[in-house]
Structure formats: C-alpha cells, structure tokens
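Q: My labmate handed me this sequence with no annotations at all. I'd like to see what the chain might look like in three dimensions before we decide whether it's worth expressing. Could you predict it?
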Amino acid sequence: MMWHKTGISAIIDAEARIFTKECIMVRQIHLALCMAGLIALLPLVDAEQARAAKKMPSFELEDVTTGDSIASSSFEGKSLLVTFWATWCPPCVQEIPSLIKLQNEYRENGFSVVAISVDQEKGVVQKMVNRKEINYPVMMADKSVTRDFGGVYGIPTSFLVSKKGTVVKRYSGFVPHSVLVKDLQQIIN
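A: Here is what I predict for the chain of 189 residues:
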C-alpha cells in the first residue's frame, strides 16, 4: 500500500523543496560575489607591495616592560621586523617562538624584532611577555601608528624594514619561520 501525502504535509514538502533550491541559489550568488570581490582586490596586492617600498613611519610608543617611551629613531641603522599583534590572536601567539628565534639568530647582524601590541590592556601584554620570555621590544600601539603603517586592519601584520629604514615587505597573517629567514637574509647580506 502506498502512502500519498495530502493536505498540509504535501504543502510543507513542496515548500521545503523550494526553500532548498532558494538556499542553493543564494549560496551560488554569495560565492560569485565573494569571487568578484577577491578579483577586485587583486590590484591592491600590487599596491600593497608598492606601499611597502617607503620609509618606515616615525613613532614613539610605550615599552610594555619598562614603561619607557621608545622612539623609532632608536632603531636607526638596524634591519627590523615590525609586527602588529595581540595576546588574544592565536596566529600572533603562534609566531612568538619564531620571532624569539629570529631575535636570537640575527641580533648580532644589526636586526631586531619590534612588536606593537594592539591590545587594550597593558597588563595582559606584560603577562604574555613574561610567560613567553619574549626577548625583543614590545610596545603598545596607538591609533596613529596603525594608520601611519598604511592601515593595519588584521593581525598579525608585519613589516620588514631595511637598515636604511625602508619598508621592503608587508606580511598579512601568520608567516612561516623559513619565509622570514629567507627574506631577512636578503636584506641583511
């Protein structure tokens, strides 16, 4: 004996099929819009690299551990990796061992990691610095420094700076240690 749906259950099944088709169409439209947005952003990749080839902005920020004011001019003549980060950012925290290692390996070559935290509370950053035994300068960001570096909208965002003070590369997101070493060796040598 076959059961046929009638009445309300037939209407519900019909609406469910229509709803499913509409969801698929919405997903396809959403995917197409995302792809179009990514394609539209491609010219900005070149613009970001072009923006990288400029002088590092001047700044004066508070050192997290000492409370002293550190000016960007104190790094003059050094190669730098300036990294914007936060304690609540998993990829940022994941990069810390790599940054400590870079600091240890290249300090003698006139290099320093410079970390600029976008956290709201200095105490949270101090605890992270102590817990992770961070061996490079860590400062608290202000609005002007994120703007002056060309707009830091996501973290981690890092900038490789030559000894002449020119930003030669911008990294958005987590960067593998091997990539940082390769790029750093190109500007140190």
